[in-house]
Amino acid sequence: MTEFAIILPVLVLLVFAIAQFGIVFNSYVTLTDAARAGARKAAVSRQSGDPSGQAVAAVRSSASDLNQANLTASVSSSWQPGSDVSVTATYPYSISLLGLVVKSGRLTTTTTERVE
């Protein structure tokens, strides 16, 4: 019983850490997929009135699981056929265990596609 009382807090802390890491990893996968969707939209929207705006809208709609107020997306390209378009998306994260923030920062991902 004494050994269990000593080990239990460590095990509970480990389980909470694994859960927090899973939440951050899910946010990263969602963010990466959103950047890919935005880059694809930008690659085929060269002749529209606002290709950058359409790409950012595609990122936001694809990342609907994330808090939209904290999501930022940027698009860079010369919009010439055959050139590259890069979409960068960022989202903040924090890993907290029992109310203490252990690690925080920003998740960033960039996807590049060729303009059609």
Walk me through this protein's architecture.
This protein has one domain (2-114). A hairpin with a 2-residue loop joins β2 and β3. The chain is an alpha+beta fold and 116 residues long. It is rod-shaped. 47% of the residues lie in helices and 30% in strands. A three-stranded antiparallel sheet has the order 1-2-3, covered by helices on one side. α1 runs antiparallel to α2 (51-62).
Question: What is the straight-line distance between the termini?
Answer: 67 Å
> What sort of overall outline do the alpha carbons produce when their principal axes are compared?
rod-shaped
Order of SSEs: HHEEE
Structural class: alpha+beta
| Total domain count | 1
Strand order of the biggest β-sheet:
1-2-3
Per DSSP E runs of 2 or more residues, the count of β-strands stands at 3
Strand content: 25-35%
Report the sheet with the most strands, covering strand number, pairing sense and barrel closure.
3 strands, antiparallel
Number of helices: 2
What helical percentage do the residues reach? 40-55%
Task: Give the C-alpha Rg.
Answer: 19 Å
Mean pLDDT level: 94
Q: Any low-confidence stretches, pLDDT <50, length ≥5?
A: none
State the gist of this model.
By secondary structure, the protein is α+β, with helices and mostly antiparallel strands. 47% of the residues lie in helices and 30% in strands.
